[in-house]
């Protein structure tokens, strides 16, 4: 299986909606995190409907599964290594350094690489 590219998807993913918590309904839970907009038709960067309705998962680290291409770029770009912190408690960071308010250039690094907020 080759590398997934944006061009091969047939739609143009866009960054996660920063207002998703208030804009979309909470539609369920999955592995102890909240899910928003599951089953709701949403639209890509060009205004075309996404082919799936999987929704936005999580609030601490939110992933828009309609826009995710599963290439792992968000994990590489994350300035606070939140995935390591979450997956390997005690192994990477303390969680005390998650305030990026004094580092505006890093605040949306993950979001620019993938649909993460």
UniProtKB/TrEMBL annotation:
Where does the chain bind [3Fe-4S] cluster? 68, 74
- Top-rank taxon of the source lineage equals Archaea
Q: A single GO molecular function, which one?
A: zinc ion binding
**One Pfam family per UniProt:** Fer4
Q: Which PROSITE patterns match?
A: 4FE4S_FER_2 (PS51379)
Which InterPro entries does this UniProt record tie to the protein? 4Fe4S_Fe-S-bd, Fd_Zn-bd
> Mind telling me what this protein is named?
Ferredoxin
| Organism of origin | Candidatus Marsarchaeota G1 archaeon OSP_C
């Amino acid at each position: 299986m080759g590398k997934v590219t944006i061009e091969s998807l047939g739609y143009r993913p866009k960054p996660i909606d920063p207002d998703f918590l208030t804009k979309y309904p909470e539609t369920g839970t999955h592995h102890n995190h909240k899910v928003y907009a599951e089953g709701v038709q949403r639209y890509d960067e060009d205004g075309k409907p996404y082919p799936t309705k999987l929704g936005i998962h999580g609030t601490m680290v939110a992933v828009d599964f309609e826009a995710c291409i599963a290439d792992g770029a968000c994990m590489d770009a994350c300035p606070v290594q939140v995935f390591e912190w979450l997956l390997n408690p005690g192994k990477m960071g303390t969680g005390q350094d998650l305030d990026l308010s004094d580092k505006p250039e890093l605040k949306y690094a993950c979001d620019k690489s993938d649909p993460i907020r």
